[in-house]
Each structure stands twice: as structure tokens, then as C-alpha cells.
Amino acid sequence: MTQRTLMAALLLAALSNTVQAQSPKEHFDSDTKRIATRYADDKKLCSDERDSSQRMQCLRDSKAEYDKAMAQARAQYKNAGKPGACHDCGKVTSVVVGEKSGEGSALGLIAGGVAGALLGNQVGSGHGRQLATVAGAAGGAYAGKKIEEKAKSSKLWTVHVKYDDGRQAAFNFDHDPKMLSGDRVQNANGTLVRR
């Protein structure tokens, strides 16, 4: 009789491996139906035994296989909804939009200096005019540099993440990552992707 129960267990294992494209609930339902059908078939086989002690042993073996298969199906269903352990997974804690200042070049400095010198040259006379020209050039150079930096500035999105293991990190994006606080994310090769 142990060969029958062994065959039943192997058949159940083979059948449970063939159904993979179902939802966890559908998979569980089909497994329990298959297990119950197999148990009913095993009980019919046990009833064919002539010796009562062998028949009772057959029923006990069938029941043990049924209980084992049901426990395994329940465990698979229970664990199907849980996400696998992920070392680089976490949750977005905040998304901050800031401004990344641009780089000023010599062009902005020179253009600002020339414009400032021309304006400074319009003020006063004599040494005062020379002093105003120098001050205008210096102020214009500074203003030209700042104007160019502002013109070349861009938005910067900083996404703060708290990993499942408690670590924290921040990731910068030069485009909107379309992530919100509370989103599940994963660090994939130094950047964030949604999970």
C-alpha cells in the first residue's frame, strides 16, 4: 500500500507544478480540489483491500498524505502574497524639488563687466568717473555671472528613501521621477525604480 500513497504524492507534486499562470487564490482552489479528488480515489482503493488491518493502514496512509498535501497547499497560498526579501528595497519618504544652479562662464563675466563699465562711465566726471567705471565693471561682472547662472539653472528632484532594513539614502534626478511619498522602490544599479 505504501507504493500507492507514494504514487499519489508524486502525482500531486507533478500536478501542482504544472499550474503556474494562475492567481494565488485560483492556484490554491485548484490544488485543494485536486487533493480532495485524489483522497477520495485513494479511499476507494483502500476499500478494495480484503484484510481489515491492511484496509485501516491504507486509510491512515491516505489521510496522512491528504493532510500533508493540504498543509503544503495552505503554506504556499499563505506565502504567495508576501514579497520576497529584497536587500535594496524600500519606501519613498519624501520628494523635494529644488533648483540646481547653472555654471557661469567667462562670457557672462565679460559681458556683465562691459555693460557695468559703460553704465559707470556715464556717472560723474574726472577721477569720480574712472572710479564709477571700475565699480560698474566689477558690479556688472558679478551681476553678469549671476544672471548667466540663473539662466542656465535647472530643476532637481531629490527622492529620499528609507530601505526595509532601516538604511536611508537620497537620489537626485534631473527630470521628474514621478514618485510619491509612500511608493515602494528598489535601488537598481544606482538609480531608483518602482516595485
Automatic annotation (TrEMBL):
Compartment annotation: Membrane
GO cellular component terms listed in the entry, alphabetical order: outer membrane
Classification via InterPro entries: Bact_OM_lipoprot/Surf_antigen, Gly_zipper_2TM_dom
Predominant place of localization: membrane
Alphabetically ordered keywords of this record: Membrane, Signal
Signal peptide per UniProt: 1-21
Glycine zipper 2TM domain location: 107-148
Pfam families: Rick_17kDa_Anti
Domain of life: Bacteria
Official protein name in the record: Glycine zipper 2TM domain-containing protein
Organism: Duganella margarita
